[in-house]
Amino acid sequence: MSTKSKIHPRTTQVSDWSIEQLPGLSIQDQSKLKELGITTTRQLLDKASTGQAKQALANQLKVKTQYVNKWVALADLARIPSI
């Protein structure tokens, strides 16, 4: 008989939130993102996956890159399910 216990990996579902739910994102910035087809945190993470992409997105939105970096960081944190 084997005494090994079976380990069941915990499955974690990654969350995808509406842009409106990101804290610190103004209604104007939400509208600008929506105009570019970005309506969810997953889409934001996909569109701003590299430094160059973040800079390009900031240029399109006419905002500072630091704002895009902040939004991406918050979107990344939002993927973690609450405990």
Walk me through the topology.
Elements lengths: L26 H9 L5 H7 L3 H11 L3 H14 L5
Helix pairs in contact: 2-4, 3-4
Beta content: under 5%
In total, how many domains does the architecture comprise?
Answer: 1
| Main sheet record | none
Stretches with pLDDT under 50, minimum 5 residues: none
Q: Give the SSE order as H and E letters.
A: HHHH
Helix and strand content put the structural class at mainly alpha
Number of helices: 4
Radius of gyration: 17 Å
Q: How many β strands by DSSP?
A: 0
Instruction: Give the overall average pLDDT.
Output: 87
Distance between the amino and carboxyl termini: 36 Å
Shape: globular
The helical percent reads 40-55%
Description:
The protein is mainly alpha-helical and about 80 residues long. The chain has one domain (about 20-80). The protein has 4 helices and no strands. It has helices spanning about 25-35, 40-45, 50-60, 65-80. Helix 2 packs across helix 4. It is globular. It starts with about 25 loop residues before the first helix and ends in a 5-residue tail after the last helix.
Jot down its keywords.
83 residues, mainly alpha, 4 helices, 0% strand, globular
Summarize the structure.
It contains 4 helices and no strands.
